[in-house]
Sequence to fold (703 residues):
Amino acid sequence: MRSRLPLSNTRSPCGQPAGPSSAHRLAALARVSLLALSLAGCGGENADDGAAGGTPPPAPPPATGTVSISASLGVVLNADVSVTCAPTGAALGTGSTGSTGVVSVATSGSCSGPVLVTVSGRADGTSTYFDEALNSPALFPAGSSLRAVAPALASPMNLAVTPLTEIAAAQALAGAGSLAALSAAQVNAANTAVVAQVLGAGVTLDILTPPTMWSITTAPGSLGTGDADRYAFYLAGLARMALGHAAPARAITEALAADLADGSLAGGSSGSFSYTPASLPGQLNAGLTSMASFASSALQGALGIVAASPVAVSSFTPVSGAVGATVTLTGTGFDADPFHMQVRFANNLTAEVVSSSATSVVVKVPAGAVNGPIVVTNTLTGQSVTTSASFTVSAGGGGTPGAWVSRASPSGFLLNGLAYGGGRFVAVGFGQTLLTSSDGLSWTAGTAPDSNYYDTKSVIWTGSQFVMVGDKNFGSSAPPLIATSPDGLAWTRRAWTPDACCSLSALTDVAAGGGRVTVAGGSSLASSADGGLTWTVDSKPAGVFPTIAGMAGNDSTRVAVGSQSGAPTIIVDTGTGWRLAGGTLDPAHSPADVTWTGTQFVAVGGRGVMRSADGVTWTTATLADTELPTGIFLTTVRAVGATLYATGDNFSNKHAIIKSDDGGVTWSVAYEGTTNGIANLAGIAASAERIVTVGGVKSVTLP
Fold:
């Protein structure tokens, strides 16, 4: 490979590029650096040919420094990051976006020419992004990537990786033919052209300068007229264009990147989303208008955007109906994405949204509803209204007795965990979501222990109290969340000190067993022997650092399951410390969750089921399509009495619940569902009367 590349095909007598200048600050820095190299090599008549007796050009300087990378598909969390020298293909540095979406990568080596930054989804399924159109986190699956190309490496350097940089990278690489042939001129041209091609000829934007990160904490009216906020707003408008796709932000990125690789806007599609050159400007304007509530009045005015109407209900019909009947509500300020509309009938029961538009929403009367007014909420704008008239629930309907019932999620945010104890269900999730219910149907919002976190990952009932874990806010001095509650209503944050070796941004699971409460995040473990009052960091086996996905325990044993370097990994503590478990683990199935049934441990992951009587020796079986629907991958397992239940989804719009009555040896499909929105069912819990699952846009209960 060549170690140096010309910046363009047109060069001055001394080898520096002649061509249009770029407005990009980073490109300017790169040109200054490369120009210095070029001038150093001029030096006289023979400077261009060391073999002829002249002075050879100097070696490229070491590219040692720091690159701060902001991964903004909304915000991309827990994804792998790599920095590569384009001319040589050499790796300059790696890192992870962690829980903030921003990573400082230490670079080392040398590079003379453009650099490629790649943000990739992890094989263990822990990478997520925040889809602005869905106003919700979504999976950033293995094989997914966002790229950015910069004309040269500088230090220090702030670099954005966004849908626009991905589109520009695809265009630059297609023009060059290969990464090694990529020139700085091609990089500058693509990074500049994409702005006009996608956003319009009158828009000026430096796509390599980081935008404001967009997450669940992005508040209505918070985006101002600064470049970072304006950039974020344009990205949100683009995501909104693909509304109706299961992953709108990814869909628009993929479609435009494929279309513009040749530099010409011809029209394209991704799944249900499509556009033409003529329709693109109007679709983008509609997308920006739909997201206007997040823009300040100044930004709306600067871009000529009109905010959506406030939520109001003018009528609903029919005015009475049985459970399962459809009701159409007419009004203003609604949203065309059903995921953004939440409708609650009296008794505080969330209804399933069948369809919606800006002026109407169609729902089903939920089982358990009673006579009373209806509350309609646009979760995207945060606006809500209660009807002045009451709906009357008539007799009949209600579905098949003893069958699973598909319900709307009780939350406008994604839920990550569910537990039952002390006569109460507790559900937790994004946006500090904390919900309680006595029957698993009617839910009430709880109060968070504090504001030093935003994503609650897991919750359990220990037999005497609830314990929940989560992340910490970026920049907060508080450790990742551990909180306890005797009743699920009043919560107390517990002080603890994470492992000094690791920069821990979130705890992802909690379990009780072996006389301790144990929490895990990444490859870190900590436990408490006094009910959560004091905590100590657990030591792990030498050389074993799995990413822990699930934990369980019995009276004497603790088990943690996950993966290490893509391989399934299980560690166990039988009272003498953690050690690596043994047995036959299928490399195709990394365990995502584990439970204790009363007689054995059972773990699930992918399309596999793993079992162990003692937590030490394990066996794996792959489920047949008759036991688990094709395309569904298991994520959660719980024992309810003598029956095992496991949930799974296809990372898109389908989910399933399977069950086993023989300890996990054989399984059958208990329920299958298709949704308009995120399908995962992340939690299972049961009272004496009802089994409840929660997760994406659905809650499925029995009965």
About this structure: The longest strand covers residues 383-397. The helical segments are 25-42, 163-176, 184-199, 227-241, 248-259, 280-290, 297-303. Residues 405-702 form a domain with the Methylamine Dehydrogenase; Chain H fold (CATH 2.130.10.10).
